[in-house]
Design brief:
Length: 758
């Protein structure tokens, strides 16, 4: 007990210090973020962009799809360009061409090398010079650059408008004509994209050859290359990771671990009778399966748009379901079904752990279910309506699609979801309260379950921190608090604690051992994970020290994954501990799959892009998608499915249970995911990385690469993996249908295997 208290103390200290540093970094980002000018003017006094247009342009872009339609500073979707890189390259080419024709009377490409070199040097000096006047709040451009800016701005108004000459380009970008319909919004949109490009090119005050985005994106025309710090801290982070892994392996080898206890002769949960609130959670799990099917369907459509930008095998589907909507649903439903599975698991196990069914608990579980259903349906419908009917920026922010990846639902729905999560924590806490008060060997695990649930509910408040007019750098800062700390942080702690608690209840691990292990694992994970959030913010207009902190602590995130294989092997051994454990075989195998994908998806693929030097060239390319698919579904998705199966085992008629359907479900999901990632996404990411390193980020995201024969072939090579994966989801749906359709009398125990059913 003394050792456990010390671990809890260390956990509290690490969390307090880490969040203090993270908050300090946020304050520094706020103070040093790229300035938003009141006006952008030419040297002769002409106003190119007036006061408020950068802010209005940001809102216009977000309401048109935002991060579901290309990226800014590397964050968003992968078919359309990174607009900051695209503008930067177009403006540089336009300005250079103006000088070539005026000064030499010829196109730049027709000039001799010495003349080209002179213009390139002049171009770098012009575009890297910081002409922002803080007192006046203006950016002043030369007359020639103003001409170039006007030309690129016209391209953007034509592109986001309805110019017929750009129909083919829009199809390549998977964007519809009239993405922005309001005339004032359309005029303002180029101001935001120009500003994002200006911040990426111009030198910070007092610095040379170092832009506000630490020289991201790679653009050789103006010598936008990785900073020295990006290289140094990348090397340091790799050395730290290797040393920390070695230390952890040595510590594990030196530690004397207790062997698992002798398993009980019979299933300890054999006679568990679900309470009314536990039975009420069953419908949550069927909705989870429905959301999985919808998410996979939208994923198929979204991936296909990478080849036929407006059509689905010839049918003009984008007229009613544009890319921005299908991708929003695909990413949003992924988070929602995983979260719903975990929320329902908490509501199911709480009364089982405490043996206490609070008054009106079933009513609360039912109210929460219909509230969550209302939020899912309402936010999806309003997001679709706002995008298709172009309801405008206010509608998009409050009710429709905010245009932010993984956090796209309108603010009203975010508020309702926050209230719903607090209600969930209340339901969970009141059911766990007797177990929290009562001294027991497993109380530490129960406390961890409740505290992580409290963080899940409380930290969703970060979705309410940015406003409609917030600086884009601050939006990204707070968005990653939500995505990284909420989804990748506290949900993982919650799930890990729940799994440990389930194993102790089954008598497969010792409660005292699990208590110490779960606190220690949480310390190791959060020590790197909290400040590791900053690896998402290297190039979003942040101070340069963000690269140092993010690189070092994100390297530490990989360290605990080095022993995941050992834990997976021990779980596999536990699945064979006694004949009755086979009743939980597929749940345990899902937990083992989590270990595999944690190592591969979060570890190998994650660290392949997490160092500053790697992310500099690969941010916003398909290597990010490979990591995202392998980690999000492989880790969190398989966790959700494993928990779902465990709970349904105790809620379903034993005669309706079918391991023969779960077997192909499990293998199809994992094999299909592996095929999708390693046959298509990883090769596509490597090819794009080559294009980014050799030529520039603009080229890696251009139609010349995205719609090259090789890239489109790699998109088609997703089909076999997608089909195998989809078959796995259909087996899961068929399994659920069997549970619903067969209304046989419930036997004494719902935990028998098919073999035991005779």
């Amino acid at each position: 007990m003394h050792a456990t208290r010390k671990l809890w103390t260390w956990l509290a200290i690490i969390c307090a210090l880490s969040f203090a540093v993270l908050a300090w970094v946020g304050a520094e980002i706020y103070l040093t973020a790229p300035p938003i000018p009141k006006q952008v003017i030419s040297a002769d006094g002409e106003v190119l962009f007036s006061e408020g247009q950068v802010d209005r342009g940001q809102q216009a872009w977000l309401s048109a799809g935002g991060q579901q339609l290309g990226t800014v500073w590397g964050h968003g979707s992968y078919v359309a360009p990174d607009w900051s890189a695209d503008w930067l390259h177009r403006e540089a080419l336009e300005l250079r061409q103006i000088w070539a024709k005026r000064d030499f009377g010829a196109s730049f490409d027709d000039l001799n090398k010495s003349s080209q070199a002179a213009l390139n040097a002049r171009l770098k000096e012009e575009m890297r010079r910081n002409s922002y006047d803080a007192a006046a709040g203006t950016i002043t451009l030369s007359a020639d650059r103003a001409v170039a800016v006007r030309a690129v701005a016209k391209h953007y108004t034509d592109l986001f408008g309805d110019a017929r000459s750009l129909d083919h380009l829009r199809e390549q970008y998977a964007m519809n004509a009239n993405s922005v319909t309001d005339a004032d919004d359309l005029r303002a949109l180029p101001a935001f994209v120009f500003w994002s490009s200006w911040a990426a090119a111009t030198d910070r005050p007092g610095a040379t050859d170092l832009s506000y985005t630490s020289n991201w994106p790679h653009e050789p025309l103006i010598d936008n290359r990785p900073s020295t710090g990006a290289g140094i801290w990348s090397i340091a982070s790799v050395i730290l990771m290797i040393g920390a892994i070695a230390a952890m392996v040595m510590a594990h080898a030196a530690a004397k671990e207790e062997a698992d206890p002798e398993p009980p002769k019979a299933d300890p949960l054999f006679n568990l009778k679900p309470t009314s609130s536990m039975l009420a959670t069953k419908k949550y799990f069927f909705v989870v399966i429905g959301l999985i099917l919808a998410q996979v369907g939208m994923g198929v459509i979204t991936a296909h748009y990478a080849v036929e930008g407006h059509s689905f095998f010839g049918y003009p589907l984008a007229d009613i379901l544009p890319f921005v909507v299908s991708r929003t649903i695909h990413t949003q439903f992924a988070v929602l079904w995983i979260a719903t599975a975990w929320l329902a698991t908490g509501l199911y196990i709480a009364p089982a752990i405490s043996g206490h069914e609070p008054r009106f608990q079933k009513l609360g579980v039912n109210l929460l279910f219909y509230a969550l259903l209302f939020i899912v349906v309402g936010s999806t419908a309003m997001g679709w309506l706002g995008s298709v009917q172009h309801k405008g920026t206010a509608f998009a922010f409050w009710l429709g699609n905010q245009g932010l990846e993984f956090t796209s639902m309108g603010r009203i729905w975010q508020i309702l979801l926050f209230v719903g999560l607090l209600f969930w924590v209340t339901l969970l806490g009141r059911a766990l309260w007797p177990a929290l008060k009562k001294p027991s060997d497993s109380r530490g695990l129960i406390v961890m379950v409740f505290l992580s649930a409290l963080c899940i509910g409380g930290f969703y408040a970060t979705s309410l921190t940015w406003g409609q007019h917030s600086h884009y750098s601050m939006i990204e800062y707070w968005r990653w608090w939500l995505v990284h700390l909420w989804v990748e942080g506290f949900f993982e702690v919650f799930a890990t604690a729940v799994i440990a608690l389930l194993f102790t209840r089954l008598g497969l691990i010792r409660a005292a051992t699990a208590n110490n292990a779960i606190v220690l694992e949480t310390i190791v994970f959060l020590f790197g994970g909290i400040l590791g959030t900053l690896h998402h913010l290297y190039f979003t207009g942040t101070p340069t020290f963000v690269i140092a902190i993010g690189a070092m602590f994100s390297a530490l995130e990989v360290v605990p994954l080095s022993l995941i294989g050992i834990e997976a092997w021990r779980n596999y051994q536990r699945s064979k501990a006694a004949p009755w454990v086979q009743s939980y075989r597929w749940s345990i195998l899902c937990f083992i799959a989590v270990g595999f994908w944690n190592t591969v998806g979060a570890g190998l693929l994650g660290f392949s892009i997490n160092t500053p030097i790697a992310l500099y060239y690969m941010q916003g390319l398909n290597m990010t998608a490979a990591h995202g698919h392998a980690a999000l579904f492989g880790v969190y998705g398989m966790l959700g499915i494993g928990l779902l199966l465990f709970c349904l085992r105790g809620l379903s008629d034993r005669l309706a249970w079918s391991d023969s359907l779960l077997r192909p479900m499990f293998w199809c999901l994992n094999i299909g995911l592996a095929m999708m990632v390693f046959i298509s996404l990883v090769p596509a990411g490597i090819y794009q990385a080559w294009a980014s390193i050799s030529t520039g980020m603009w080229f890696a995201r251009s139609p010349d690469v995205i719609h090259s024969k090789l890239m489109e072939t790699l998109v088609w090579m997703r089909v076999p993996g997608d089909v195998v994966f989809a078959i796995g989801t259909l087996f899961l749906a068929l399994f659920a249908w069997r549970l619903l359709a067969r209304r046989k009398a419930r036997s004494t125990s719902p935990y028998l295997t098919e073999g035991e059913q005779g």
